[in-house]
Amino acid sequence: MASLFNAQSMLDQPSYSFAQPTSHSEPRQHSFYPYTDNGGSTLGISGQDFAILAGDTRSTSGYNINTRYAPKLFKIGGDGPNNTGSKIVLSVVGFAADGRALKERLDTVVKMYKYQHGKDISVGACAQRLSHILYSKRFFPYYVTAILGGIDEEGKGALYSYDPVGSYEREQCRAAGAASSLIMPFLDNQVNLKNQYDASQPQGFGKEPLKPQPLSRPHVESLVNDAFTSAVERHIEVGDGLQMMIITKDGIEETYAPLKKD
Amino acid sequence: MNHFPQAWGRPRDDVYGQYNPSYLPQSHGGTQQPITHTQSPIVTGTSVIAIKFKTGVVIAADNLASYGSLARFTDVHRLKHFNRKSVVGVGGDVSDMQYLDRLLKSLDVEENYSTGSHTAEESETDPAMMGANNLHTYLSKVMYKRRSDFNPLWNALLVAGLDEKNKPFLASADLLGTTFSGPTMATGFGAHLAQPIMRRIVPDEAASQQLGREEAVQAVRDCMKVLFYRDARSMPEYSIAVIDEKGVELKEKEVLENQSWDFADKIRGYGTQTV
Lengths: 262, 275
Fold this sequence. Notes:
The structure holds two protein chains of two kinds.
Chain A: H1 7-11, E1 41-46, E2 51-56, E3 59-61, E4 64-67, E5 73-76, E6 88-94, H2 96-117, H3 123-135, E7 144-151, E8 157-162, E9 168-170, E10 173-177, H4 180-190, H5 217-234, E11 241-248, E12 251-258
Antiparallel strand pairs in A: 1-2, 1-10, 2-11, 3-4, 5-6, 6-7, 7-8, 8-9, 11-12
Chain B: H1 13-16, E1 43-45, E2 48-52, E3 57-62, E4 65-67, E5 70-73, E6 79-83, E7 86-93, H2 94-113, H3 120-125, H4 132-148, E8 155-162, E9 168-174, E10 179-181, E11 184-186, H5 190-201, H6 205-208, H7 213-230, E12 237-244, E13 247-255
Antiparallel strand pairs in B: 1-4, 1-7, 2-3, 2-11, 3-12, 4-5, 6-7, 7-8, 8-9, 9-10, 12-13
Helix pairs in contact in B: 5-7
Pfam families (chain B): Proteasome
Subcellular location (chain B): Cytoplasm; Nucleus
Protein name (chain B): Proteasome subunit beta
């Protein structure tokens, strides 16, 4: 049989009749920017035996309001597409399409965990997994600020906050999104009692700062309401509705209250 | 016997000569230019608008495809009928719209080839028929995938129809994969001009559940007129579709009626007038 190749090439490595791809082509130039900011704000506070996550429901692009009801809070795990029986909540704010993709990935992972291990994932493990998911896209990040809430293995309220590439930390409270710079100082003062001193003490430098105590659920709910009604006044991307999810050992309670639509 | 499996089935060089790689991309030894992606839309369609009402959804878009400021094609149908339950309205790049249309056609074949409910009575009761919500999920994932590949489909889509429970469904997806839904939706210029008018009629979900079919159709027609008055990339001939439990009623040759510029002399606040 006639050889397909000449003698020279027979000695070489096996080869194709056309050149192998040597390296990737030239770096491409892009004018397409794959991100946008959909505005809105989220907030989480943890208590003794509960955690509360809240977010407004407005979705914006520029000065336009896309819709007045686009939830930023998602139940994670549980059963079926409605996540019945779930005890973990993820809130995402920033680029809504990435937020949805992130939520769907975490939800799948948490559901797979239950099928594989026969028990619900702990919030701590879920929190670390979320960090890994975010970091896995370190060089093309999910452009979102995430807050994860649940109940830890001791029955205490647990709250984890993230940056877009997966740095995370467990905290008592955190505000994120468009109005985070308006809400966070309020929470520092009202939840962690920063710059608050015992009023009954005499004036002077030796005053004892107040020690933060775990807050009751009605108190936290009213703080969340105050934070959002104030943010709505001062930030144009925040408004329309306030969605809250309260996680306790018994499950998730969901509430919705209208905010100003202007 | 040739012992190099990668050469099996290939034309023999000693018979046919060396393979000519010139048409291949540069990365494969060819002289082709690098692969290019859409960096901006070329032939474009303008707004799509839609309103949900008590038992269904109305959606409309004009029949113009512009080439920059040139009104290039005047008979381009931008409402795509998918099945008995859903219609997709497409704004933005027209060639990407045609790609999406082919994609939807093949999806429809895939969905119905084996289950094959194509007689009228069968499709009437088919519980597995894709709802508009399923179609929207599919399209939004296509859009998000393409933006993540830095090769976007330069469109803004409205998906209108009924979900699996035959409830009215209306949602949008755009070139970034962003999705949202609401009782009224508008893409492009319509988001500025038509959306405020529609929101006055249907401020929330509850109001859309009170709205009758006739009122919804009239509201959409009024909005198409406002858009023609003020959107320079629009035309007076448009398509309008109503989707409800009876199926899809799509008209593709509607013309704006009762046009009048009588209101123009009462406009104050900008332009050259001094009073």
